[in-house]
Amino acid sequence: MEQHVYRFGADRTGADVTEGNASMKFMLGGKGANLAEMARLGLPVPGGFTVTCQTCMAYSNAGNVWPEGVLDEIKVALADMEERMGKRLGDADDPLLVSVRSGAPFSMPGMMDTVLNLGMNDESVQGLIAQTENPRFAWDSYRRFVQMFSNVVLGVDSDLFENALTEKRLVAGVRSDAELAEQDLRELVAEFKQIVSEHVDPEQYPEIVVDGKVVFPSDPMLQLRLAIQAVFGSWMNERAVLYRALNKIPDDLGTAVNVQSMVFGNKGDTSATGVAFTRNPASGAREFYGDFLVNAQGEDVVAGIRNTEPISDLKKIPALHEAGEELERIFGILEGHFRDMCDIEFTIEQGKLWMLQTRVGKRTATAALKIAIDMVEEGLITKEEAVKRIDPAQLDQLLHPQFDKTAQFDILAKGLNASPGAAVGEVVFSSDDAVARVNEGHKVVLVRWETNPDDLKGMTVAEGILTSHGGKTSHAAVIARGMGTPCVCGVETFRIDAGAKEVRIEGSDVILHEGDIISLDGTQGIVVLGAVPLTSAEITGDLDTMLSWADEIRLDETDGRAYHVRVNADNPADAELALDFGAEAIGLCRTEHMFLGDRKQIIQSFILSADEAVRQKALDDLLAVQTDDFVKMLRTMTGRDMVIRLLDPPLHEFLDDPRELEVEIARAEATGALSGKELEERQALLRRINGMTESNPMLGLRGVRLSIVYPDLPLMQVRAIATATAQLKRDGFDPRPEIMVPLVSITEEHVRVRAVIEQTLAEIAAEYDVELDIPIGTMVELPRACVVADQIAQYAEFFCFGTNDLTQTTFGFSRDDAESKFIPLYLHEKILPVNPFETIDPAVLELVKMAVDKGRSVNPDMHFGVCGEHGGDPASISGFFNVAGVNYVSCSPYRVPLARLAAAQAKLDARK
Length: 912
Ligand code: ADP
Ligand code: MG
Ligand code: MG
Known about the structure:
Elements: E1 5-8, H1 25-40, E2 48-51, H2 53-61, H3 70-85, E3 88-89, E4 95-96, E5 98-103, E6 114-118, H4 124-132, H5 135-152, H6 158-172, H7 182-199, E7 209-210, E8 213-214, H8 220-234, H9 238-247, E9 256-261, E10 272-277, E11 289-294, H10 300-303, E12 309-310, H11 321-338, E13 342-349, E14 352-360, H12 365-377, H13 383-389, H14 392-399, E15 402-403, E16 411-414, E17 416-419, E18 422-428, H15 431-439, E19 444-448, H16 456-461, E20 464-467, H17 475-483, E21 487-489, E22 494-497, E23 502-505, E24 511-513, E25 517-521, E26 526-529, E27 534-535, H18 541-555, E28 564-568, H19 572-580, E29 586-590, H20 600-608, H21 612-636, E30 641-645, H22 658-671, H23 676-692, H24 704-709, H25 712-730, E31 736-741, H26 747-768, E32 776-780, H27 783-787, H28 789-792, E33 798-801, H29 803-811, H30 815-821, H31 823-828, H32 842-858, E34 863-866, H33 874-884, E35 888-891, H34 896-911
Parallel strand pairs: 3-4, 18-19, 19-20, 20-21, 28-29, 28-35, 29-30, 30-31, 31-32, 32-33, 33-34, 34-35
Antiparallel strand pairs: 1-2, 2-9, 5-6, 5-9, 7-8, 10-11, 10-13, 11-12, 13-14, 15-27, 16-26, 17-21, 18-25, 22-23, 23-24, 25-26
The structure holds adenosine-5'-diphosphate and magnesium ion (2 copies).
One magnesium ion binds near residues 345 and 357.
């Protein structure tokens, strides 16, 4: 039969009777499992028992009905506990008092409830007086219990009790609760009970109704049952549900309930209560860290009502010296046992130390690195364990500037935390203004409704980017993350009037004008008026050490394949940065980013001109600038692979907005501002632009289809790549380009383009008299390509998976709209567990695996990589390497350190 209740602690002879242990957190919750573990270690833990998380779920699933037999099991456990403690709940001579504590498998700070001093009633208060000879203490405990129980279990507004307390202090002429006399407390107990009678709905709590009136329950067994029910119920309260949604904790885990005998930190100056960490959780330094309060109970320490004292002073108080020594000894025992920094709650009752909680402590990224590295040096953990312990997502904290933690500021607006890091600058409303101001030596934040490829110049020079529309994968967000520029998206309260160069902010009377200083924090998604001081990004020695350990692991080939990390980079500066961050090669160089800025003009005349000579001139110009680009990139990357993708986006992305052109024409027609010939030219241009409009450009004339429709384009690009390579070889460099054909779905597409590429390579090789051994591969990003991967593989040296498009086309979700239109709802309704554009979907991963397997079966030497946004997501990285079997992932420069760590962790997982 299923066991619902597990004992912990010792019996009266001191023998340990604990049934649980630290590995049982999914049954006993984190708190219960570790209380059991501490008891097993022989540490002083007040005895008690834990009701399992599964009981909570059974109770909740049955519509708040106790599962058969559990209440009897609890009665037995309680009787056993009374026997062990030598006291009885509610006893008039020597009463047992207990706490009823929630504790889920994952810590949910402040989300659920705890009741202290349970078992107090008019009889047991007399017993407590007899035992302690301290009537004031006994009545204060009673008063606290009625207050806490009524608030937590019966839902009475805590203000009602606080008001009564305030009035009592006024009448008594004292300033703090600690000065209230026994008589005052006695009266308060009665008044509190009266409040309960008046404010609790009898229909909601029929068990405590006597003669139609709510009466505060005096039966300890009833108190206990109601308290446990309340803790069970708190699992489903609104803030707990919200917290779990935000922290991706499943709803079906349930919470355990710990019933534990009370110890008292409020029995005078030889008693105290406190919280502590075994090391500094902010810096990681090897020092005790925490606070305590003399003569206090429970939450007093964290509540901030009284000034706490630093834990290092505990030993300095003579009456607490011994307990302090013991506590430090226990710090050592816990670290040695859990082999990690621990977070502890303790109480000292009349000089005797009691341990009330421990868990592995939360820490900053800096502390996480320092602690893990120190522990390797101390011989406590291995390098592999150290690497496993660092949360890759946390590394972001270390790589971007942040708001200074001590800074004070008011939040002006909130948006999505689209790209991490903080920035300060003057507001500008257009890309051109951004460039102009920066050229004058200013720092700017680009504020746009949403960005488009035209804004790239401004985005490049801006310290930060803010948009009022768009989600976390909007253009602004994706580009900002790629550039490592802080970005806050979807700031809906910003009413931007770019023409007037001002922003009105809904719900505020602030109006921002061009040149006003704002600060934004893309890690948190907040915007502040004025300059917030920043702390700068640094790659500390510890980060370096940790990442070099990660590299040793992921590049080790003795246990199988190496897990490589490449970068997505389109310009030498990004490539340089990525090399500093430890990228091994370039996994994706997008050539379209080389066609923006001044060059847009050239590509426009190629696309739009009807005149063959003009088109040829444009191609020649493009060839010259592209060759120059590739020389620079390939020189930076000498000795390293660099995957270059042929032109991919729909051509209209390079064209002007036809609506603006329409306006210009209409205006000219009205005012006669343009000559007849000029006007005609504009009209012809508009017709051509309109003629290129597609209903679904993402599914339209793009990728390999462009190369087929406009064969001059790939010809020019390959010529540029080959020429750059030949020149660099001649100059003694080691350029290693790989040419990638995007958006292939039909084998024949690849075959045709490959023929053009091979022929061009041969021509240039002959011209320069060098050998050009340039691999040609396919970007696999359509489901059909995955299905026919074994055919395509006959003509490809490598596959690189474009998982953004593959996700888009597998689901049939338009990435540009889905994330703002319905994915949030899907996530909320749990139709989707995660956003498939953030973390690779299993079905999409299955397609990747299928293509890898098919490719390898045809060509065992083939190389496989991933260059979608997913390449920088830790959960996806593990799937790509361990499930699909790729050779590398490629991600934006700022994600490279994270990917190195995540790849090492994936490798360690695969070893098991
Ligand atoms: P939380 O999960 O919010 O930290 P806890 O169950 O740990 O809640 O309880 C909060 C505080 O109540 C503890 O830190 C401790 O000070 C006090 N407390 C809980 N149980 C006992 C007990 N058996 N004896 C004395 N104090 C207790
Ligand atoms: Mg606690
Ligand atoms: Mg693509």
